[in-house]
Amino acid sequence: MTKDTPAAVGSPPPPSRAATFGARAWAVSLWPFVAGVALAAFLYFTLPSAIGPYYLRIVVDVGIAMVLAVSLNIVSGMTGQFSIGHAGFMALGGYTAGMITYYGSILCWGTASRHGGFLGVGDWLFVVACVVGGLVAAAAGYMVGLPSLRLRGDYLAIVTLGFGEILRVVLQQTNKVMEDAAAVRASTLSDWIPPPVGGAVGFDGLPKYTNLFWVGVFVTMTVVMAYRLKQSSMGRAMLAVREDEIAAQAMGVDIAKTKVRAFVLAALFAGMAGGLFAHEPGLIISPKDAGFQRSFEYLIMTVLGGRGSISGVMLAAAILTALPEFLRDFEQYRLIVYAFLLIIMMLLRPQGLFGIHEIWQIWPRRAGANPKTEAVAR
Amino acid sequence: MKSNQVPSQDVASGASTAPLLFAEDLWLSFGGLKAVQNFTLGLPRGALYGLIGPNGAGKTTVFNLLTGVYRPDSGRIVLDSQELVGRQPHEIAAAGIARTFQNIRLFPDLTVLDNVRLAGQLRASQRLGGILLRTGRQREEEATICRRAFALLELFDLQDRADTLATNLSYGHQRHLEIVRALATEPKVLLLDEPAAGLNSREKQELAGSIRRIRAQFQLAVLLIDHDMNLVMEICERIAVLDHGVMIARGTPAEIQHDPKVIAAYLGCSEPLN
Amino acid sequence: MADFVQTLITTLEVGSLYALIALGYTMVYGILKFINFAHSDVVVLGAWISFTLASWILPAIGLDPHNPATPPPFWVGGVILVGSMVACGVVGYFIERLAYRPLRNAPRLNVLITAIGVSLLLQNIGQLDFVFGPSPQKMPALLPKWDVISFSLSGHGGVHAISIGVVDVILFMTSAVLMIGLEYLVFRTKLGTAMRAVSFSPTTAALMGIPVDRVVSFTFVLGSALAAAAGFLYAMKYPGLNQPAHTIWVLLGLKAFVAAVIGGIGNVRGAVVGGFVIAFVEQFGAFYISSNYRDVYVFALLILILLVLPNGLLGSPVRDKV
Questions:
Q1: Which residue ranges make up each domain of chain C?
Q2: What would you report as the CA-atom Rg of chain A, rounded to the nearest whole angstrom?
Q3: What is the mean pLDDT of residues A5-18?
Q4: Out of A166, A246, A332, whose CB is closest to C295?
Q5: What sign results for the dihedral spanned by CA atoms C190, C191, C192, C196?
Q6: Domain ranges (residues) in chain B
Q7: How far apart are CA A229 and CA A354, in angstroms?
Q8: C residues 280-319 near B, CB within 8 Å?
Q9: Which CATH architecture describes the domain B1-8+15-58+70-96+190-197+220-274?
Q10: What average pLDDT does range B83-87 have in this prediction?
Q11: For residues C251 and C261, what is the distance between their CA atoms, to the nearest angstrom?
Q12: Is residue A374 very low, low, confident or very high in pLDDT (cuts 50, 70, 90)?
């Protein structure tokens, strides 16, 4: 930034060098993450005894759903690329992470059960596994994003749907899980290709590392990053691609790069959430978790919450994950209600409950507020 | 101009500067329909030229060719000695050609400010890491983009509407916003596609003044399409006339007004215009 | 050799079914420029309505639907087919009227989401206890199990008997009649010309005096009727009827949609061609490579075609107007 940029009348002076690069800058950069991790730790130690295992499970499910809904929002809500294969990225990440923790545990410690306590070695293996799962999913996101360059809305929907369904079929044809170290030592190449992740039955026996703390950490990471993305030039570019591709191009936006980026980022977070999902106590990840029906669950969260609203989508994720638990008796009507909800939303309020705004942005303006200083300060 | 190089004679003033934007021998067909035939135009630095013609003559198609939306079947487009044919539209925008659209193409659900910031970020570069970690550099760049956006909004007195959704602006303001947004990309050449459409005569007068001011303030070359003959004749230094994809005349406003081919194209008879 | 012939026969049958379903997708896309996600659910509806009608009619004429010792008279099948087509036509009409018409000018993404909603609605209402129920049922045999043609061919591990039964013949003939009828309708009648005009440009067609809304409704009804016929024929051939929300139906519809795209979406003849192409790839792939991945072949073909020939085999390019 040059010193001779003409500053507009009445605008605040450019920040000093220290504020830009010094310790204060690091504080600004990292405080949301620190706060989130601290809150997650606090909840981890206090909440379980307060609310009991049944509600704890719901809270964990809500957290995972939030990560998935917010990540889907990046590609569908913000960039307008209709993706109904999001669960495929989740499943890919989950299975990858599972393979790492399961077979990694066997290789390191001889068994596939949980190792070490809170923030112990096992926990870190788990985190690494989730991140690797995310990266693998991101690579898949790149490949799925490529057709999006050529295909418009409807076709892209079919291709993404096909991705999820193909993954489901492929996962069903996988080898069965090896039970212990002896089985691994005795295994041959054909036991490993296709990967031994359980086939149609699902990947059973994973060490269950997912807890409130890690869910909180990943939720924090995803939400903070998604929010910062939205407020940045990249986020604006994504929104522009959604609004009008031709105009966006004319204003210098590389729409191909933007679309692929959106897919990759969305897939990255979804893959990490998949790791959380696979290691959740009481849950076995199975091929159907890659399919259309699961993708649909996240789709409706983004439709309801608002295309582009991170907090709106989080709220929708919470409601649509928790409510069915309390309305178990009406399970057979759940999808019917969702279906009606989708149709009515499209007829009456297609931008979702919150549209592009965050929940805190819907309060009316204070009279006399100056949009300029507010915008620069934001 | 049938040479193989960019000519070095400025058509308007006779000074020896190469045109900033030079389109040579452009041809474009859609199936059997010849949309643009043998189109050649030189736009010097700082010039304000007009492109007119009856409806369907291919004027917007020429704009689309110049901005890379369509690729010509043959011909060259050179901006400041860079070849533009075959480049992607966003690369051409980065090279320095900005445009407005005949049927306004603002980003309807984005605010006025965001519309302009989107264009302004072309000249800044935020990396993903910087964004996700909200580094000092990224915040600085955002502040710069914001400041520049407000400065441009003040040209048309839109700064107080910065938070309004583009779709909620009045028609006249939307037209102004389109121009502001194009300016935010810091172009060398500005293509205005019917900027006066739907404006009343007072607004058109103001627009004429604005275009002249902008041209001077930002040192742009401007190419203008419009159907309002008064506006075009008043502010354009030279005018090219298209009919059915073919350039049938070019020259000063006075020459165009009396050119029988032009009159015939518009009216089908040989009376002088206005 | 025997295997080849058997696979070929299955290809032709499955291809006819895919073609019938693909026609519905392609006609709706041609007219409204969007993918009717709910179309495959009309196929399911057709199959299950056929089942329901059969379970009413057969007892009424004194036959046990679960074990008809003698095959029912021929007209029973015809009545059920027509009944199913009419019922689904009506459903198609109401879907268009209530869910799609209000969104005629909305962004395509919104209509797509609505279509997904309609699809889910049909599936899950179908699974309710008081509708079709959440369990599979067996479709009663409506046709005699005779073989029309039967011959022996040498093949893998000895001599195999290849038979083409009444069911197969009826399937071919019904599909052929419907497809030929549609070809005639679309290309030789005024109504068909109106349909094609609307698919080319609704505004111009309206200016020419064509009642666009009615043509659109008719297209939906027609597509739904064809879907119902496909569902009925599917139930005839594969009597183990899965419950409405079963993935097998989703895949069936998806593959038929791929068929429509491969033939050139919006192109009626293309849908027929595409149906047989898909069936060929699926059946021969399943047989000669591996049947576990039969769905993958179809999708792989889709991706290939979309990247290489984005307008399908018989389609034509569409340019955006800037």
A1: 20-246
A2: 22
A3: 46
A4: A166
A5: positive
A6: 1-8+15-58+70-96+190-197+220-274, 105-186
A7: 18
A8: 319
A9: 3-Layer(aba) Sandwich (3.40)
A10: 92
A11: 15
A12: very low
